Amino acid sequence: MKEDFKDIRAYRVGWLLALTDWCTVFPYLRYLKRKTTDSLRLDYLGDRKQIEEDIRHGAFFMTNHRDIVMDAAWLSWLLRKRYFIRPYMGVGNNLFARKWIEVLMRYERCFVVKRGAGAHAQLENMRHLSAYIRHLRSRGKSIWLAQREGRAKDSNDLTQSSVLHMLTMDVPDLFEAVKDLNICPVSITYEYDPCDYLKAREMQLKRDNPHWRKSKRDDVESMSTGINGYKGRVVYRLTPSINPEIDTMLAAHPEYREEPHSEQLQHICDLIDRHIHRGYEIFERGTDFDAYIESRIAKIDIPAKDEAFLREKLFEMYNNPVINYRKSLGL
Asked: Cα–Cα distance between 276 and 313 in angstroms, integer?
């Protein structure tokens, strides 16, 4: 390895990973599936054989971001069961409230996404992480990373260009660098988001005080609620690699190669977003959904509680995926 990635890399302990998977992690995930979901399904959008061919070459699974822990945990489990692959997963160091959590996560094939540094240090962290990810892909390893740094509180899932910028730093051709990653977008849909009321709470707190910031305690509460809360039906939908669409796009618009870097990034973001939006599972909401929303509002205990605002934000969380799904189909 030409560059030392010791500070961020996942630990390389194949036999120990397999042992902990089968003895502890997988039984716990099966327990959570029974306890917190009505069903958990891995599905496909498009040609399943093509998707499986993309995976065989090593895929970069980029998903929308619903839950701090379970997004990656269940995708990893589902892929391991069906294809016997275990992607490397990017996890923010803001989740490492204790050293033992970092050690455990890195044993579980997680690498560290460093956050919270000054501008210069953050740039170097991004460059270091980008090099590590390209190193993994050069060895044919599959990777999971969310499409944005934090969860989309309002469920308006849009890929952050800064994520793609990090992934393609110091490369001469953006489009070829993205194709080398072999990005296969994945849509994650929860029928019910167990953290919905926490997200609405956070939105009001930020509205009332723009300087409000989450504490480590808030992160731990979100992790615990996301893991143990009820989710109803959960669907992970794999979509094909965006590489053929990049080729088609460039054939139709060769001028894109001469555009500013920021505009090139946005073209790729738009491709990823269309895949994710088309892959949503759209659940029918019954007449009891209003009662569900009111029950979530009742769980929020903050000063100057604005129920009208909270209600609006909770409905927005569940309506935005439907709006984006319809837009992706031109409806």
From this structure: 22
